[in-house]
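Chain X:
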Amino acid sequence: MPEITRSEKGSLWLGALRSCISRYDPSVDTSGLEFFEFPSFVGCSVDGFAHVLIGSLASADIGPYLAFAAGRKAAALNIYLSPATLNALPSQVLPEVAGVLGLQSEGFVISASVLQAGKSGLSPVVHGSKLQSVIQDEKARQEFLRYRGAEQALGLAHESGCQTLFIHDQMIATYLGLEVARSTNAHGEIRLEIGVGRNDRMAKSWLGGAASQEEQLRETIETVKRFRLGASQFHPLARLSVARWMRLVLEVNPGLIAAERVTPIELARAGSWQGISVWSLKGNIEPMDEYGLMYRGFNPSFEDDNLSFAIATQGLDNDYVVGVSDGIDIGAVAKLYEVTKSVRAQGRKIEGSILVMQERNRISSIERMVDMASFDLRSATLSPTWKNLI
């Protein structure tokens, strides 16, 4: 992790970090320590012990702080959290976020502690996560089919050549990994909205005219196919949800990761914080003006943190949790560990985990995080021609 700047003694966050270190260990003389300041946190190390104070937190992800500790060759790490860390989010969210960071810390060989800083001192957090891993098997499909109208929506998606994903009472239809339709549940009845993203779904529902849903879905798929498989590599439709596209390639070609079958996993998170993805802390607050009211009834499209997940099966029952990373993500290993824990909590026997990246994104800092993992983890890459394998 590159250093941004060395912090001066007058920094507000630097002073707060000094206070946290002194509370944790009064014997440490902080006056001679070297501090480093990053866009979202400040840190220092002393006697093989790294200390980090988070200034702002946009994602529940311990990766950057572990990377800092590893860069300072520290054997242990303290992470300090204060209510100000979460900016505009409610204060009751903090214990849940801290618990997720604490749980993620269990997945690494560096001994890491997450401490909440308050007026009364420092308090260790209770590790925990409310992440729900929905394995896309027959059970998930049958749960969705319990609702009125679900079978018709599913039939339309399959007839159009879409892949269907289920999160409890919701179905998301994708083509080449990109969402082209999603269901809504109104009073126990399933209806299908067509379009790539909320704006497109809203426009088609208002301006669709006499076009049937079959025609709308066919046109949407053709548009996605043109930009996904054409030469417009910088068009948004070619760049969105690439991790799910990569996962689809693995489903068709499981041998790429020495598997016989790849089954997708979709994620949901219960709890006080409702972001636009399961790790996001950006919040999901709709504007209350006339433009915000237009969106009422149209759910926002999910963001996937440039990650997707699956179970790879070898033999009869040798299952591995797979994390597919689209970009350069220092926190991918921590998130994969959390998903692996979530799957194991369902009683599923998991042999290990696999982190899959594009070949161009296999950089030393991510490989270092893989090497630091305390759980059974290996990495694999997809060649630059992976799109041609579908």
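Chain Y:
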Amino acid sequence: MINEIGMVRAILEKINVSWKWYDEKNGTVQWSFSNSSTRKISGVLYRSGYYFGNAFWPVYLNNSSFNTAFTPTNSTLVDKGVANNSPPLMVVNFPGGKSIVAFVFTLAPGQKWSMLEGGFVNGIVPEGPVCYTLSDLSSREYCIKYDEQQVKDWDSQTGTALKGYTPNPSTFLSLNGNVPADSPYVQLFRDQINPGKCS
């Protein structure tokens, strides 16, 4: 009976996610998240083969226009309107001691929240979106060194000259949590994430 209750909770207590076009001509979609459960839930969005936020997070972090930072707590998202909403970053742990940086979505019971994402051009659309629920959430310091290739790729794709944070590596106080054991492990670049302060 306990196992059955646990399985039902795992099915019901999750963040539901969907997308629709916000501006199809310019390749912008609207992501919508909802928590229909009776408890606060934190999750990470996996779609199109990787986790949302992992691709270019050093650029997002270093440039204020993206309005994001590492969060030390699992505070619920504040709704500033779909065009102004931006989630925080966190360290996401996988089995085997592997970790990545990605956006975290924390919703209160019954909460709905939406945001925009661009780049869906030339017939590309989000594929297979699923929001994996995080467990064992806590906060600690990390020394994080990012792979500078992702900054070069960002500028090449966008025609900008944005930078990642300095110094690289830097120490961050961040929320961290575990994905379910069956979550796919994907790290797009060779970031180095180690517990503790940078020496």
